[in-house]
Amino acid sequence: MTGEGKNPFPKTIRLDQGIESHDRSTLKRLRFGFDGLRCLSVPGLRPFLVFVVVLAGLAFVDAGGGRILTGVTVFSTLQSFSTFGPAALGLGLTMVIGEFDLSISGVFGLGGCVAVLYGNDSAWLGIACALGIGILFGVAQGLIITRFAIGSVPVTLGGLLTANGLAYVLTMNRTVSFDHIDLALALNEPIAGVLSIRSLVALAIFAIAIFIFVTTRIGRDLIATGSNRRAALISGVGVGRIIVLSFAFSSTMSALGGALLSYGLASASPAGLADVLVPAITAAILGGVSLSGGVGSPLGLAAGVITLSLLRSGLNALGAPPFINDVALGLILLVVAIADAPYLLRRLGAARGWWRRA
After folding, report:
1. Is the distance from CB of 130 to CB of 273 less than 8 angstroms?
2. Each residue of 192-201: pLDDT tens digit?
3. Which CATH number applies to 47-59+70-316?
4. Longest dimension (CA), the chain
5. Nearest to residue 78, comparing CAs of 251, 256, 204, 178?
6. Residue closest to 185 by CA, chosen among 253, 76, 263, 101
7. 269 phi and psi, to 5 degrees?
8. Among candidates 293, 248, 224, which has minimal Cα distance to 144?
9. pLDDT value at position 88?
10. How far apart are the first and last CA of the chain?
11. Is 270 helix (H, G, I), strand (E, B) or coil?
């Protein structure tokens, strides 16, 4: 028999008792990994976390070789940023409102071809014509979507094919040259070693978009339209106007990006300017834009484009084969998609609950 003050049961065993030191370190690493995934699931933090991870990974692979943190790599990154940035910004904002603009690739090429065709007499005239084409395409697509209640994917797919067809007709399926070689060289001339006129224009566009998004109600209306369109209508948001303006802005940015790139290359062709859709989508996802809409900002999109551009330029500087870029980018997107899944499911569940109550 046991004494009155003694516990008849064996001493309680702590769960972590007996775990070796290396097992504890393993648990800490696992806990750190789960915390990292939780950070990735926060759209506001994701773009900057992914950027830091990509930069650290490239620096680690470089192993002190001095090929990543150089002025040449920064210049190349910003040049790539100027190519995909405006189109990614426009596409990302249409994704924020819960829509999708597939036509940016076609408008990008059409804008470049129009700018070169009409810019040989006056470069400003070519830019103006390209912007006019972009506005026309965007407004037309937005009006079709809102007036006829048609999904944005089939409408913008039709816009993509139409823009591609018009570009081939205008150029007669040939490469057109830009006669102002001095302007082409000036657009790509390094400024302070890392900038150029093209990159400065792209950075200025993002700065203006960030300022408007933060300081005016346009940003709130975009988020409200993408989060819950019916609730946005009840609260007085002009949803139809927001949709039309978003698609007009998206097409305009694509046309401007195509025009600046074509001027910089001193030539334009429909086939040579078609590879912009996938990078723009990738940059938007890396930039924290949710596929369900209602989440995203120009600042996050800028970080997403910079990350994509850094990955491309860094791997080129390391001498990696081209397919390595696709593999690395695919793995990053897979991790981001896995991290975003719980957030997306919560959003969908909340939306279903709201509709049931309504």
Report:
1. no
2. 989 999 999 9
3. 1.10.3470
4. 108
5. 204
6. 263
7. -150, 145
8. 248
9. 95
10. 67
11. coil
C-alpha 101/C-alpha 148 separation (Å) is 17
Neighbour count for residue 6 (Cβ, 10 Å): 8
Per the CB < 8 A criterion, the answer to whether 232 and 224 are in contact is: yes
How many residues does the structure list for the chain? 358
Determine what percent of the chain falls in helix, strand and coil, rounding each to the nearest 5. 75, 0, 25
Euclidean distance between CA atoms 35 and 150, whole angstroms:
41
CA atoms 336, 45, 286, 219: torsion sign: positive
Instruction: Provide the 8-state DSSP code for 13.
Output: P
* 134-173 pLDDT tens trace: 999 999 999 999 999 999 999 999 999 999 999 999 998 8
| Closest residue by Cα to residue 250 from 44, 35, 43, 100 | 100
Please give the pLDDT value at position 36: 47
Name the pTM for this structure: 0.83
Calpha distance 217→47 (Å, rounded): 23
